Amino acid sequence: MKLLYAEDEISMSEAVVDILTYHKYIVDAVYDGEEALDYALAEQYDGIILDIMMPKKDGFEVVKTLRQKGINTPVLLLTAKAEVEDRIAGLDMGADDYLPKPFVMGELLARVRAMLRRKETFTPDILKCSNISLNMQSYELSNGKQAFVLPKLEYQLMEIFMLNRGIYLSSEDLLVKVWGYDTDAELGTVWVYISYLRKRLAALEANVAITAKRNVGYTLEVVG
Q1: Selection from 212, 208, 151, 153 nearest residue 177 by Cα
Q2: CA-CA distances (angstroms) from residue 36 to 56, 86, 180, 223?
Q3: pLDDT, average across residues 183-205
Q4: With bands split at pLDDT 50, 70 and 90, how would you rate the model's confidence at 136?
Q5: Dist. CA 37–CA 18, nearest whole Å
Q6: How far apart are CA 114 and CA 126, in angstroms?
Q7: 175: three-class secondary structure by DSSP
Q8: Is the separation of the CB atoms in 17 and 5 below 8 Å?
């Protein structure tokens, strides 16, 4: 599951990102409202966590603009403001839930899980890139005529690539995101599974490829 998290307090952001990543979420962290809006419009997220009090644009403005533009990704608002009027304002502008600061991490995780249980209302079950699609329910990688049901690890790796198209991810990043922090797997394992996915993409005559940049990482890009 991929989340966008917008928080201008760096220490708070780092702590929350660490917790979410530990619980196997993929997190893009941004630090002001303009950046949050840009990311939310450019990428596909399963959920968005927005602090209300941010520079450049506040959380209210971000969620209002997203809804006006037809972006229905579920949004959880975080704020030090606990007044009833603020909660009502945020929900009226299109937020799905509201959590006042300070909060305990367990409650944040519970709110995120609840938000993501509703994600099928907001996000498609199928990710698409050029002539390839990935069914998030059946784990099928398909070109519309032929399909492979991917094993779990291959699916998770392919999902990360499709959710981060054009973004280079290092072997270390991929190892943590797919296998977890406490894995005994070697970095070479990542390359092995990427080679599996490359063979499947070739068999599907895909117009996309997993490409590598030396000392940077891997990304999925359209090649045909």
Answers
A1: 153
A2: 10, 20, 26, 29
A3: 93
A4: confident
A5: 22
A6: 21
A7: helix
A8: yes
Phi, psi of 196 (to 5 degrees): -60, -50
Any idea which residue has 């092995």 for tokens? Answer: 192
Contact between 204 and 148 under an 8 Å Cβ cutoff? The reply is: yes
Phi, psi of 59 (to 5 degrees): -60, -35
Tell me how far apart the alpha carbons of residues 175 and 146 are, in angstroms, rounded to a whole number: 29
Q: pTM for the whole thing?
A: 0.52
**DSSP category for residue 104:** -
Residue 54 contacts residue 16 (beta carbons within 8 Å): no
124: preceding bond cis by omega (within 30 degrees)? no
**pLDDT for 151:** 92
Q: What is the Cα 94 distance to its own chain's centre? A: 20
**C-alpha angle 161/163/165, rounded to 5°?**
60
Nearest-angstrom CA–CA distance, 18 and 12: 10
